[in-house]
Every structure is written in structure tokens, then in C-alpha cells.
Design goal:
The protein is of the alpha+beta class. It has helices spanning 25-33, 36-40, 86-93, 99-112, 132-149, 210-219, 250-254, 262-270, 288-293, 314-323, 327-333, 349-358, and strands at 47-48, 57-58, 74-82, 117-127, 152-160, 171-181, 196-201, 235-237, 244-246, 278-283, 301-306, 338-344, 363-371, 376-379. Strands 10-12-7-13-11-14 form a 6-stranded mixed β-sheet.
Length: 380
């Protein structure tokens, strides 16, 4: 009888694929292809169609009549930013439609401080697995923000990264490019003693300080889905018979999108093509008034800001009381109701204020420029 034959052959391995590793190329490609219609809502004549291209195309031929204005010495202005941990509140509430507005706002509001006209915007979304419903909500917000800013959504990237992000998590980043004439670009050296500081109202917390916001919610045991009357926020709810006034829940108040100041500031600047009546501007983000307005100053002047010059929105006092937060810490972290500052020559302060009000902004005279060392001095 012949001996039994033994084999050491290894069992056949299952075939690996990208999908098995957590990345579905078909779903991602399908989502990407569906964005064309949304993106085109933000396109003007400067965007050059580039189907299937690896990058977006944007005209910089300033001799064409199609441009809103010509630039003698055009300088590109670029910035990048995100939304921070405001994302975590949106994820908890499964409400994503306003985050895209925040993303655009945080970039564009920084850009216009230089006096720049927004040109185009790019987005980056990192997600563990393609979720078309979530992604569509994010993209609708980004498109809305670009339309509010008057810039084109030129392209972006959706990165499916299984294993790096937990299910349900995602991250956002934005990149914006604009243009300003070198002679019109804002410079701290323009600011003079006697200039007036105008403050433009914020829409709420905007997109800074949310690590502290979330800590308050957690430590005070607050319910994001509950209405807290002391917030004092009201909205009109439509009905067939009559409009009712309803107070939104805490989560909705905290997810109020960042106000975009681009159109108001651009139109105001365009009305002063010869006279340089605006000497400086500042986007009030993390570090508050003192940490941002000083960036518009040179070392021989201070900004004297009166805290009593504008009303602090209820959401800030609500967070302060529930979190037992010191007043100076509040003002160091949050905008406290002023999202943007414009420093203007005193003889034009009234006319600039009136223009901005007609453009939809709430404007307050919050201070003046005095001799100093480049600091912001806040007084009651």
C-alpha cells in the first residue's frame, strides 16, 4: 500500500479590495459627479469650464470688460481655515446644513480684512465613509456661503479615510483666494489718532470657542434640544393663518452660522475708489476683541473700545452664567456680539455707518484710536 501523501499547502486567501478596506470608489465618484449643478450656482464668467480636469480654472485677465473692476497692480490674497469643534455639536444633533456657511465665512471674513475681493473657494471634506445625505447637506451650506460671499466654488476634495475617522465623524477645511490692488490693500500704518472704530454685529458665537461651549454644555448638564427662555432668541415660524414667534432650542442657537460680511464690506469699499477713508479692519474671532483688533494697529496707537457701546447677545451671558466663566475669560475667547471692526476717518464715520446699515449690517460706534503702543484698551 503506497504511503499517504501529505501537503503543506496554505488555504486560499480571500481576495482583498479597496471596498473591503473601507473605501467605496463608486460611491465617492458618484457623489463627486453630482456636484456639478451645485457648484455652477456659484460660477460667474471668470470660471473656465474644465470637465474632468484635475483642478479648477479661473481667469485673471484684467483687461476684459467682464470683470467688475480692473486692477493696476493685482495682488492675490489667500487663506485657509476650518470650523473647529462646532462640528461636534452638529454631529450630536445630526444637523449639518449650516456648517458649510461657517466654513466659507471663517475664510472670507479673514480675506476681506485686507480689502480683497473674493475670487474663489476650495473645500476639503474628510470622512470615514461616503454618506451622500450628509455630504449633500455640507455642500449646500458651502454653496450658500459662496453665494453670500460673491465667490466661485471652484473645486475641492472629498477624502474617504476609513480607519482614521470614527463612524459619524468628519472634518472640514476651506481655502479661499481673492485679489486686491496693492495700493488699496489695508496696512496698519494707515491708522491715525482720532480715527473711529465701528463694530458690526455678529450673528452669535460664530465658529470660535466651541471647546469651551461644549464644556459648559457638559458640566452644566444642558440639553441641546431644550428651549431655554433666558437665551432670548426668537424666530418667526410660518403658518397658514398667522406667523407665530417661537424660541429655538439651545443646539440651534449654538449652530447659528457665522455672519459673512463680504458683500457689505466690498460694496462699501467700492464706493470710495479715490479717497482712502477706511484705515483698517479686523475679523473678531478667537482671542476676542483685544486679540484681533490689535492686528490692525501700528506700534504708536491704541484702540480705546467701550464695552457698553453695543448689546451683548443673550447666548453669551447664558454660557457665562451656566459655566461660571469670568468676564475677562469670556471676552478673551468669544466675540461677545461684534464680529467685524472697521476703522474709519472721523469725518466719514457717519456716512460709512449709514452705508453699512443700508447694506443690512447692525453698526455701532464702539471706540476711537488714541496714542499708544499697538494695544486694545477695553473700558466700560
Amino acid at each position: 500500500m503506497p504511503p499517504t501523501r501529505q501537503t503543506n499547502a496554505a488555504p486560499a486567501k480571500a481576495s482583498l479590495s479597496y471596498a473591503a478596506a473601507g473605501v467605496n470608489l463608486e460611491e465617492k465618484d458618484s457623489f463627486t459627479e453630482s456636484l456639478g449643478t451645485l457648484m455652477r450656482k456659484t460660477h460667474g464668467p471668470r470660471v473656465i469650464p474644465n470637465p474632468g480636469g484635475f483642478a479648477g480654472l479661473f481667469r485673471l485677465d484684467f483687461n476684459e470688460k467682464l470683470f467688475r473692476r480692473n486692477y493696476k497692480h493685482p495682488v492675490l490674497v489667500a487663506c485657509a481655515d476650518g470650523v473647529g469643534t462646532k462640528l461636534r455639536l452638529a454631529i450630536e444633533l445630526k444637523k449639518y446644513d449650516t456648517l458649510g456657511i461657517d466654513l466659507v465665512a471663517m475664510n472670507i471674513n479673514d480675506m476681506i480684512v485686507q480689502g480683497a475681493e473674493p475670487l474663489f473657494f476650495l473645500d476639503y471634506i474628510a470622512i470615514p465613509k461616503v454618506d451622500k445625505a450628509l455630504l449633500n447637506e455640507l455642500m449646500k451650506g458651502i454653496v450658500d456661503g459662496c453665494k453670500q460671499s460673491g465667490c466661485a466654488l471652484l473645486g475641492g476634495e472629498t477624502a474617504e479615510m476609513a480607519g482614521l475617522y470614527a463612524p459619524g465623524d468628519f472634518d472640514l477645511a476651506g481655502f479661499a483666494v481673492g485679489v486686491v490692488d496693492l495700493d488699496r490693500a489695508m496696512k496698519p500704518t494707515r491708522v491715525e489718532v482720532g480715527d473711529v472704530v465701528l463694530g458690526l454685529a455678529s450673528s452669535g458665537v460664530h465658529s470660535n470657542g466651541y471647546s469651551l461651549v461644549r464644556k459648559v454644555v457638559e458640566s452644566a448638564g444642558l440639553d441641546l434640544r431644550k428651549v431655554y427662555p433666558e437665551l432670548g432668541e426668537k424666530r418667526a415660524s410660518s403658518g397658514k393663518k398667522r406667523a407665530a414667534i417661537a424660541e429655538p432650542p439651545l443646539g440651534e442657537v449654538l449652530l447659528t452660522p457665522t455672519r459673512i460680511y463680504a458683500r457689505s464690506i466690498s460694496k462699501m469699499l467700492a464706493s470710495y475708489k479715490v479717497k482712502k477713508v477706511i484705515s483698517g479692519m479686523a475679523h473678531i474671532t478667537g482671542s476676542g476683541m483685544s486679540g484681533n483688533l490689535c492686528r490692525a494697529l501700528h506700534p504708536k496707537v491704541d484702540a480705546l473700545v467701550r464695552r457698553s457701546a453695543w448689546p451683548v447677545p443673550p447666548v453669551f451671558r447664558f454660557l457665562q452664567e451656566r459655566g461660571n466663566i469670568d468676564e475677562e475669560e469670556m471676552r478673551r475667547v468669544f466675540n461677545m456680539g461684534i464680529g467685524y471692526c472697521v476703522i474709519v476717518r472721523p469725518s466719514f464715520a457717519e456716512s460709512v455707518s449709514e452705508q453699512l446699515r443700508k447694506l443690512g449690517e447692525k453698526v455701532y460706534v464702539i471706540g476711537e484710536i488714541v496714542k499708544g503702543k499697538g494695544d486694545v484698551r477695553e473700558v466700560e
